Amino acid sequence: MRIPAHSVCTAIRDDIVSGVYERGSRLTEELLARRYGVSRVPVREALRTLESEGFVVTRRHAGACVAEPTVQEAADLLEMRMLLEPLGAARAAQRRTEAHLKVLRGLVRLGQERARRGEGEDLRSLGGWFHETLAQASGSPGLIALLTQLRHKIAWMYAVEQPVRPVDSWAERGAIVDAVARGDAERARALTAQHAERAAGAHRLRRPDLPGRRTAPAPRVSTSQHGVNTAGARH
Q1: Long-range contacts of 101-107 (CB under 8 A, 24+ apart)
Q2: Full-model pTM
């Protein structure tokens, strides 16, 4: 069975984002192949993809290592998202389907219910699904890919505090969906820009002392193994 490189890439990226591999730690093909139960070929392809995304760097005498972003690089990510999410919402107002609207409205309804009940963990997941669906509704593969990559990297670098009034946050999302449903691109853009700006204030760097380069230690791996999703594998 051949495991697709994109499945291996997803597994390694998820483990980097969740902190299984520390910033600066080495990522050897042999260790990764053994961990995910694959050959070194898809691992090598996955590392190239992750390097292009900024999660991995190649260093002389050390090979592939988890990247060590600077404070400025982290700040730039939030600024890029604040620029791109409003664009995605404007495109969604022009290109969304009824299926997209149905999902977005359902997520807003669930989010408002969970907010009233104070179910914070559910709200975090629902918020992620909402913004992912809004991006999908833009109908722009390039923009969707950029926003997906930004979400992964921001989740890696930042912890997000729950809003003081989550009901208000979901009311904002509901207003965005109403604008998208009416095809009002400019209002969808403006509302999303306001929402993104407020949301950015809730982000806190996971490591305020993000370092510069240093000698990469051996990777620290958690005891829980992250299996590779083989649903798309070819036999």
Answers
A1: 101/137, 101/177, 101/180, 101/181, 103/133, 104/130, 104/133, 104/134, 104/137, 104/177, 104/180, 105/177, 107/133, 107/173
A2: 0.78
